[in-house]
Fold this sequence. Notes:
The chain has helices spanning 12-25, 38-45, 49-61, 91-112, 115-131, 135-152, 156-171, 173-184, 191-202, 206-229, 234-245, and strands at 65-68, 72-75. By secondary structure, the chain is mostly helical. The longest helix is centred in the C-terminal third of the chain and has 24 residues, at 206-229.
Amino acid sequence: MQNPAPPVHDRIYKHLARRILAEIIAGKYPVGSRLPAERELAIIYEVSRPTVREAVIALEVQGIVDVRIGSGAYVVRLPSEDDHPGSHLSAFELTEARALIEAEAAALAATLATDAEIEEIAAHVDAIARADRNAAGAEAADRAFHLAIASAARNGALLGAIISLWDMRETSAEAALLHEKARSANIMPVVDEHSAVVSALRARDPEAARAAMRGHLASVLEALLFATEGEEGQEERRTRLRTVAG
Length: 246
């Protein structure tokens, strides 16, 4: 029987997380048992593997499952009435929103930024490079880089939206978990991708700046997927990246 469609305002992974939650309560997946593999869950629930991955992460944030690298996701406790998986924005949603909004900020900055502002943006890239394997330093420089571009776009509403997205990235439990997984996998900001944005700004080329920023954030999304997917999901990952990269 075909699964019922999720509410139109809901992301599919949230609907799936609630379904798995209900089946844990019903005893289909007892405490101590391992959930079926990602590929199997995708078939059972007729969704993509990235959707399964996001749903399992939402359950992991709630402490309902424990994801063990190379082994799978294990049910560690029964849900309570206070458990609402998927109630926080995920890193995937935030990164997709950033790709849309920050790309336009970069395009505006290419025509409106002063030479001094562009050199300040370039200095943040140098700071990312100097941070090397220092995750905290690299992330602080990364945020400064993106917010400097947003400021150079000369639009207070746009700057406010981008600051808000970065704040959500740092406070969302699901986003925090996924970025921590990325750090554990030694995934760091890529200097060349940031340098490509700076080159487009220096060339005063809005189309190139837009494309460079979208490409950079598509790579961020790819890194987040890589940090959680193991050896599965390659084709789904490419499909989603094509959507974000445009």
